[in-house]
Amino acid sequence: MMKKFKINLFQEIPSSVRWIIETVEEAGFEIYMVGGSVRDMIIAGGYENSSKNFDFDFATSAPPQEVIRIFAQAKNPDGKEHFTVPTGIKHGTITLILREPVESYEITTYRIDEEYQDGRHPASVIFVRSLEEDLARRDFTINAMAYHPLRHELIDPFEGMFDIEKQQIRCVGDPLVRFLEDGLRPMRACRLSAKLKFAIEEQTFAAIPQSMESIRKVAMERFHDEIMKLLQTEKPSIGIEAMRKCGLLEYLIPELLEGYGVEQNEFHRYDVYYHNLYACDYVPPHKPWVRFAALMHDIAKPRAKKFAQHSGQGNVFYNHEVMGERITRRILKRLKASNQEIEWICKLVRLHMFYYTNEWTDGAVRRFLRRFDGDTAFLEDLFLLREADRLASGTKQRTADILEDFKKHIQRVLEQENALKVTDLDINGYDLMQTFQLTPSPLIGKILNYLLEVVLEHPEYNEKSKLIELTRDYLDGKLMELSYSEEHNAEEE
Fold it and tell me: Residues 455, 461, 465, 468: what is their CA dihedral angle, to the nearest 10 degrees?
């Protein structure tokens, strides 16, 4: 017999939720809210107290074709247009879309799964009429509850409420069976541990290392997506530590483990591994790419340290940002990240060691900005990473005044709207070829880069006639001697 509780999770039920339930029940079928929304509302003490950062999903006894028919004939009392999309009809899932504004709801027929053959998906499903059978196939007890908001009725056959009170993540049934069915579930357990700040129950945790056969079958893209979700939790280090302890981190990002136990220097309280984790935590949750860069920013220090010690230079980490970019690129490609994501994160890792002094000239600032074409969105991310790096040392408690001074200096330079890249010059390659009877060749790029170097130091020279004069001198071998204050590498923090 299923355990039932009376609990009111809504002060006011959203009209679309009420309409969906009433429409299906009027057609003679059962329907309940299921999944993460039920769990999160219970933990928060109700919908109104929750983050509302979740989708409402439903489970029903109605077959998929019946769901389509029911809503094809239904009228929305709010006058909203609606239609259904068979997004996962093979597995019983229909997506109901309402507009305007756009709302989407997944409605899935009660089912049990047949044998899992690829470590992720059942070969086929059998539609059933029993809610309890449907809940029994789910991953964790806290996700295997169903709620009927009109009757204030919670169905909890596997003691999910007990696990919420105990703040633990526990599999439904035998954890090894659950993980061998779907190799992504161990990663989800680690992510939920960070999201909810729950511990992973002992038997559930012990089953993860035994599930590598299934874990290895999962496409890296799926792990990438889970890692990005993990990085949007309040404290991702909780989930990453769980990954380390259960062996997932060694499978997915073994390079990160190289820093475990590797001590740094007087600027750091923590070893390389924990410094990277804590830097990740210090970046705001809505910046997952910057958080990944923070996780990677010192990943090459163990290798750089070995090289320095071998060459007799002591406990230093020269060029770890350059080595770190290469390592990060390999990791992101392994995880099948997008090209845009790879380039953004790798650039953050490469540039995270900037070090500013009040002696910098405007030209030096422009050279710094040239490294990323003065992209203000990237600049914001770079400063977030630099600040996280400082705080994660364990020896700093507040924002450095010098960073604030640097931000102000950058703002002054940006307001001048000077050239920061070749395309900002008041001359182009075609102009050079026409004026000096040149043919297309690498020489054109060399000239333009030289002109940009001059203009970075002397913005007033960005005028076509002056640039032509400078080009003539360049071709005659009369290079302009530039004097400027260059930025230096950061001290080893």
Answer: -30
Longest dimension (CA), the chain: 93
Helix (H, G, I), strand (E, B) or coil at 226: helix
pTM (two decimals): 0.85
**Given this model, what pLDDT does residue 478 score?**
73
Where in the sequence of the chain do the CATH 1.10.110.30 domains occur? Answer: 172-252
Answer for the pair 18, 127: CB distance below 8 angstroms, yes or no.
no
Instruction: Delimit the CATH 3.30.460.10 region(s) of the chain.
Output: 4-166
Structurally, at CATH architecture level, domain 4-166 sits in 2-Layer Sandwich (3.30)
Q: Would you say 276 and 299 are in contact if contact means Cβ atoms under 8 Å apart?
A: yes
On the question of pLDDT at 281 being above 90, the answer is: yes
Please give the average per-residue pLDDT across 317-335, as a whole number: 93
**Pair 349, 324: CB distance under 8 Å:** yes
Give, in order, the Cα–Cα distances in Å from 98 to each of 84, 144, 332, 453. Answer: 9, 27, 37, 56
Tell me which residue has tokens 């696990």.
163
Exposure on the CB side of residue 344, measured as CA atoms within 13 A: 19
- Residue 91 CB partners (closer than 8 Å, separation 6+): 108, 111, 121, 122, 125
**CATH number of the structural domain 172-252:** 1.10.110.30
Q: How far apart are CA 316 and CA 301, in angstroms?
A: 8
The three-state secondary structure class of 44 is: helix
Per-residue pLDDT reduced to its tens digit, 15-50: 999 999 999 999 999 999 999 999 999 999 999 999
